[in-house]
Amino acid sequence: MELRTSMELLLLILERWILEDEDGDYDDELGLFDVPIAERLSHRTDRGAGWRHVQQLMYESDQQCYDILRMNQRTFEALCKMLAERYGLKETHHVYLEESVAMFLETVGQDKTKRDIAARYQRSLVTVQRKLDDVLSAILKFAEDTLRPQEGEFGRVSPVLRNDDRYWPHFRDCVGALDGTHVPVRPPSQNAEAYKGRKQDPTMNVLAICNFDMKFIYAYLGVPGRAHDTKVLTHCARNEASFPHPPPGKYYLVDSGYPTRTGYLGPHRSMRYHLGQFARGGPPVSARELFNRKHSGLRSVIERTFGVWKAKWRILDRKHPKYGLVKWIKLVTATMALHNFIRDSHREDHDFVQWQSDDDGEGEGEAEGADDLITKSTFCVCGCGCGNVLRLRNEQQVAYAAAAAAESAAAAESAAAKRTTTKGIDAAAAADSAAAAAAGTCVNETNSPNKEVQKEIQLTWEAKCQHLPGSRFHIALKRC
Q1: Nearest to 209 by CA among 349, 326, 292, 306
Q2: CA distance 400 to 411
Q3: In whole angstroms, what is the distance from residue 158 CA to residue 148 CA?
Q4: 151-193 pLDDT, tens per residue?
Q5: The pTM is what?
Q6: Is 244 helix (H, G, I), strand (E, B) or coil?
Q7: Pair 330, 136: CB distance under 8 Å
Q8: Comparing C-alpha atoms, which of 183, 189, 227, 427 is closest to residue 324?
Q9: What radius of gyration, in Å, describes the C-alpha atoms of the chain?
Q10: Nearest to 207 by CA among 173, 230, 184
Q11: CA torsion, ordered 316, 317, 322, 325, to nearest 10 deg
């Protein structure tokens, strides 16, 4: 009789697994089927074990709490209090609120199945499922409030940016960094091919924007992994009412996978950009390479934010997630909201400290080599090649400056040749530019007899950069 009951249960599990709903959101592994009463009672051989486990985490070892729940004890208490007071999470007669939240955090933090949680907390699968759903619903309400720019955020300068003289004041109008990342996914069976990315593994493309405090201020999830980053951004900017467009004069930093347009500042193409390239190949040798390295260093905040987010919530590491697409999107969104909550707690978090100290790599030997070429406080971020970008200290640097000035002069000649109102280019202007660069002064400070040359250089670089009309990037030569 027991064998027959076991076979019937097995057939029921297989039937539910085969007949999953259309969006692939049926969780076949985690006990959403009707469990017999005897099966449910078998999980509760030690009543109260779950609550004792939570008390141990809350009041004994803070390190153990951090290792298991992925946050400190005080942060965990603050999270439970917030979910109860602001988002309506309630406890029941048999399960305390802290126990429900701990179940959820252990599930996403340690990539545990519901069966693992049921055994650890001595609860039935039905109870575990119900409590996890309650906590997930409350955190998703919190996500609506935290995964967006806070009031007045774009109107004030981040202290992280203001206090870093590597980037201040050159990037003072930057309000964050934008990029995409891939997260493994269990795709719906009717559209599985679209989710295969470059490595042929099924993923979804997650578009995210973060500020310089390593907090997410926007996230768009669920796009098939085959979609290009630019298409995802275009869709969000045009169709998503919640997309935080940068205010006039402000911009996000983006990599070369996105086009440079108003509000989105990318690097110069066809030259070194990533910090590893400068670590292997030496410091920048031109104004545009310098801009690329500074751009890469500041934009690395989005890479570090992705890094600490994925390192903290181990459920994101699973190559083949066990959840359907709809449920998976909710869980990933919840982990991003928890990421922001931990960051807002203003308590030291080991994962954030580790990824923050990793920074952009300029604090070591590479920065020293760069200082020999260019003084940080006087470099011109537009890449225009003007003399103000260089403070020369040796003959090699003089050669770099002369090359940059010659490039600017060549650009001016090309642009001026197309103007019918200009009868000629004063050759002395190019010589003045080279001499000024070699002397370590700005070309606009020399007494060039032909002001038309300076105007042509400005117009040429405005057309070349196309960064932000009216910003200091656009009028960099005037500023110099």
Answers
A1: 306
A2: 17
A3: 16
A4: 989 999 999 899 998 899 899 999 999 999 999 999 888 888 8
A5: 0.70
A6: coil
A7: yes
A8: 189
A9: 28
A10: 230
A11: 40
